[in-house]
């Protein structure tokens, strides 16, 4: 199963040192900024000649920022947000700005860096710093009278603060009234109303309420972003409104926050009012003589004065490397290496293009020993962009694709070039930038050449990528190399839940993935960058085995490799005591880590038949019987007591004889049905409440927006029904299981 975190990014100042942590689960994941980020990121926002660069973290569009503020802010944002509170202490606009982020996956940190760059444009004399809420002791984070504090925080788990904000949240909750007088602040919360309707943005709302109650001065209204709708658009609207209110003179007096503004929560969920497009011409982009220009351009190419001018050198070859492991300054995280693909096959011959696939990867190193992993860990995979996407971007640049990119001239050390140097342009586009990623609102304005866009409907909903916008016929033009490379989203690794037991396969890992492919509302084919990369890696398909648990079949000879690393996931482990009851719940690709757990329990049962397991419940959901893998493994696990209750549901293709297909008998403890996994859990709610009361450990794996929220709602409901609990008491019960490590989720966004 892949988990792909929405925001994880890395400051280029430390050579892309921030990776993202798992959050999704479409068959791969992404990594925590907290694991590798070592210090706060600070900007002294003075004007520079080599102005704003995308550091690999800030997705920016400096060339249109000023016009965007003049045009968009005045028309769109004033109707959505209040301006400076009339109880501000002194001139807030002259204070240093301290941007504080609480993040689980990296998005809040990304937003912090976007705000820092925007402040550079509108308030170049203001000192700006960015800090994670984990980087200093909680009592030293807030500085009365010394800074304007902008807090950006997501909500994690069941209405909990993200990992790096837990200590600060605990400290803030322990403070008494009026302890924070003189602290100027504003808050933007990141949440997902579809995935977590009962806990939507409770941390953002809580920070705003607690700070105000403790006497701090709210200088701008609370903003709430909904990732279930269009988080980037929500934040873009709030950010521009904040800049307009604090640094550009604010709106009309009747729009100002008056007195207690705790009710002034604003969510930007509506598209901007229709307005005429304003084409932005950038006088800083000029045609200049330059080494590396395409043939036929007279030795000239477009240069953007907004960024350090990249030096280009001939490469002498048109061969593109398969990876970047040769670089002296590492591009990948430590312990990343080439891992040969042993096999890559569809798990069912009749599942079609979007069926589940299984890949087996060797962990053996060149010198003989192997990488170690534990059951429940992840494999972090670095994908590559498709050749078609790369060629599409190259076609719209006026630079030879084989030139070697070297360090820029007159580079601003605070905003360095965000990608490796010493590699060709083609290699940069293949390995370093995510061409399928959704561009930020500012980058979309840059590429479309318009100061006004309906980001949600024009960009986010159709999932348009950077090539779509570069090729948009409404603004046909060539682009300067710098304005593209400095503004592209860095390629992030995808985290795949390992689908094998380390006890059974110490030298290999199994991955399960489903190729992501759909047509958007503009009729364009969209494909997942990593799953497409994986699917195209195979030389030939394995023979499909009738018994998927028979591991002796033929495999594809190793003809390709992944660039990957093992990522430890210590919070996702089977309980050490075999008698502890367990509950496995998975949908689709979420079967990956459940397969690993079943394989391990089968192995442990065969090792010692005299030590039986405690109760084991298994709830699985698939599209149809033909989509369901590992039936033989499930059957074996049930027969030997590795699990005691099996419930498999299908969305379609249901008919007579499903139980016989599954287990060959009519045991009431094992059956299949047509419907949803959440419905099956509801039907067994009394048993499961007893399971929770006996200290059972739960493992839930699947998509967050539909699967995860449905399972969580069912668990919440059964706690109320069978535990005679109120809604808030059921939430506390669930939070207690999370804190005790008895309720473990692997949910994608």
UniProtKB/TrEMBL annotation:
Disordered: annotated span: 250-277
The protein's matches in Pfam families, at most eight in alphabetical order, are given as: FAD_binding_1, Flavodoxin_1
Cite the FAD-binding FR-type domain residue spans from the record.
334-575
Return the EC number: 1.6.2.4
Cofactor(s) needed by this chain: FMN; FAD
EC main group: oxidoreductase
According to the entry, every stretch annotated as the Flavodoxin-like domain falls at: 97-243
Gene Ontology CC entries for this record: cytosol
Q: Which GO terms describe its molecular function?
A: flavin adenine dinucleotide binding; FMN binding; NADPH-hemoprotein reductase activity
UniProt keyword Oxidoreductase present = yes
Q: What UniProt keywords are attached to this protein's entry?
A: FAD, Flavoprotein, FMN, NADP, Oxidoreductase
Which PANTHER family does the entry mention? NADPH--CYTOCHROME P450 REDUCTASE (PTHR19384:SF17), NITRIC OXIDE SYNTHASE-RELATED (PTHR19384)
* Protein name, per record: NADPH--hemoprotein reductase
